Amino acid sequence: MTARAIIGSATASLLLRRVSNEASPVIQGVGPAAQKNLATLLDEALNELVVVNENSGRRRISKRKAALKQLVNEAAKGNWRALKLLVDILQDIERRSEPQTEESSFSLADEKVIAQLKARLHGKE
After folding, report:
1. Containing domain of residue 25, as a range?
2. How far apart, in whole angstroms, are the C-alpha atoms of residue 83 and residue 7?
3. pLDDT single digits (tens) 7-56
4. Which residues does residue 62 pair with via DSSP β-bridges, in sequence order?
5. 8: exposed, middle or buried (C-beta count within 10 Å: 0-12, 13-18, 19+)?
C-alpha cells in the first residue's frame, strides 16, 4: 500500500490505533534492551530516505517528509479527507505548543492594547 493510499484512506487516529494494537516484534535470542517496540520501528521506517522527482531534479527526502508533502498537496487540491486530517494534525500541534501555565500569554503591551480596545467598544455603546 502506498503512502498516498494510507493518507487517503485512514485518519491519523485510526492509523495510530492500528499501530498500537499490533504486537511488537520479538527478536529471538536478544534481551529486552535490544528489542525494538513498534513506535521505534515506525520512526525508523519514516526516517528512511526515498528519491523524489521535484522541480526537474531528483532529491532524497525522508518518507515522513514525502508523506506530509502528499497530504498537504492533496488538501490543496480539495480532497476533504486530506484537509480534515491536516487540520486535525495542526490542531494537535497547537494544543501541544500552548502554554501550560494559567498565566496570561499576553505581554504588557498586548494588555494595554486590549484595554484600549475595550474602552473604545464600551464608549460607543
Report:
1. 3-124
2. 11
3. 444 444 444 444 444 555 555 555 565 678 999 999 999 999 999 998 89
4. 49
5. middle
Burial class (CB in 10 A: 0-12, 13-18, 19+), 71: buried
- pLDDT per residue over 83-92, tens digit each? 999 999 999 9
Q: Domain count of the chain? A: 1
Query: Region 1-10: what's the mean pLDDT?
Result: 44
The 3 state secondary structure assigned to 35-55 is CCCHHHHHHHHHHCEEEEEEC
- CA 112, CA 120: separation in Å to the nearest integer? 12
Identify the CA nearest to 86 among candidates 120, 19, 94, 26: 94
Provide CB contacts within 8 A for 72, sequence distance 6+: 86
